[in-house]
Structure formats: structure tokens, C-alpha cells
Structure prediction request, 307 residues.
Amino acid sequence: MAILLADVGGTNARMALARDGALDTGAITRFRGDDHATFDDVVVKYLAQQGSPRIEAVCVAVAGPVWGDEARLTNRDWTFSEARLRALSGAPRARLINDLIALGYATPALDGEAAGFLRAAPKGALSNGQRLVVNAGTGFNVCAVKVLPEGGIACLESEEGHTRLPQSVAEPLIAALGEAGRAIDSVEELFAGRGLARLHSMRVGQPQGRAETVVEAATRGDDMAEATLALYARLFGLFCRELALRFMPMDGLFLAGSVARSCTDRFGIFECAFLSDPLMARIPQAVPVGVIRDDMAALHGCLAAIR
Prediction:
């Protein structure tokens, strides 16, 4: 008996099996979305490749909204339903979760290089079983995690990306960009990939490009791109301080997503902003900050979610 797991994004679907409570790393296979009309086709093909194993449960993480027992990808015309997953796999149980929720479920198992702690909690800091994943990539959102006393995991859904910027972030943004900075008023508009690209465009007075281009330019020694990333890291640190007070993740605040990970190369700037406000300073000072580097984290999260 095996558990079927999947991490499905707009570009690729990563499929895996778990046996005896652990991920079978030899069974992990990546499928390009462009090569398949539906995710159902991917499931059928993958199970055939694996010798049609008996499946006891299925959990699929989707890069898109999950409504009840159905889901849809944000960047591809693929739909999902728990009923179809049960029918395709023969499993009596199936569960669909958002991919950020999957990362939340994975965090209690992360340690060492996978957890990538950039700052540790001070000696004697108290654990409260609370963690927070902060994802800045194509979009922006967070997932609050609570490890329950009986050993279970609770992950809370959120739409943090569509909240308004707090004053602690909006004021330095306007100071950096002038009155034009007032046009950026939501969290996702500033901290998602297109937000970084827009921030750079407004700073240098050039047409808006892609976030990846800004990061690549900084890597090549472009001073203007580096200045934009330094500003982003400062503003992101200020916002993560707000999140630390809101969610009190004393067991770790984890950065995820390509844009958030750009702050790891400028962590001194991020950390200085994160610790800059004396109001309730004891909380951010006690929060360890890590970065999720494990590409298999969402699959581990799917296994934790279905179990």
C-alpha cells in the first residue's frame, strides 16, 4: 500500500509515493504541464509508470485556490476534485490543499539545511508551537502553523497578500519613491514578484520588467538593481516584523518563494529592519528566521496533511 502525493504548479507537477510513513525519493517524478491536457492524465501516466500500486490515500498540493473538495490552478487550465482523485487512484481517501498550506504542514519536519535558519532564537527563548511561512513569489501569502499538544498540526488559511500595507512599511516606501509610492497600497503589490519589478521600475524610471531580471542584474554587479533589492529587503524586514507580532511564530518564521529568498543574500538589511522598532521588541528578537530550501518540502507537507 502506498500514499500518492503531488505538488502541482503552473509549470510542473511533481509526483511521489510514500511508503511506511516516509517519502519514497526514488519514485519522485516531474511532469511538464505543457505536455498534458489535464492533471488526470498525469495521475494515470504516473501510476502506470510505478506499476499500478495499490493506493490507500491521495494528497495533492495545488498552486491555486481550493474550495471544499475542488481546486483550480491559477496559471493553467487544470481543475481538480477529490472525487476524481479517488476514482483514478482507487484510494478511499483524497485531499486537496493549497501549496502554501502544504509548506505549513512541512515546517515541523524541517531542520538543518532544509530549514536554513538565518538567525536562531536566543538562548532560553520559549517555544509556543507556532510557526509562520511567508511566501513571496508569483503572489504573496502566509500560512500560520500550530503544532498541537497531541501531536497534530493545524494550518490556517489566509489572504494576507490582499491586505493594505501597514504604516510602518508605507511611510519608508513613500520616503524612497516620493508621492508615487502611494500608488502601491497592498501587500502583494509590493512584495510579490511583480511588486519587486514595479519597485525597480519606479526607482530607475524604466519600463517594468520581471523580478528575475532585477535579481540577475544585481548578481552581475548592477548597482541600481542592488539598491532596489536592498530597499526591498528593508521593507520586507519591516513587514515581517508586523507579521511576527501578529502571529507570534516563536518556533520559526520561514521565508519561501523566489523573491523572499532574494533577502537571504541581504539578510543583514532584513534583520536590521526586523529588529528596528522598540515597541514590543522582545517578540521579534525571540523569533528565529529561516528559509525553506528543500524542494521536496511541499511533498512532505502533503504526507503530513493526509496522515
Remarks:
- The chain has a mean pLDDT of 94.
- The two ends are 14 Å apart (CA to CA).
- The first strand starts at residue 2 and ends at 8.
- Residues 113 and 129 are 21 Å apart (CA to CA).
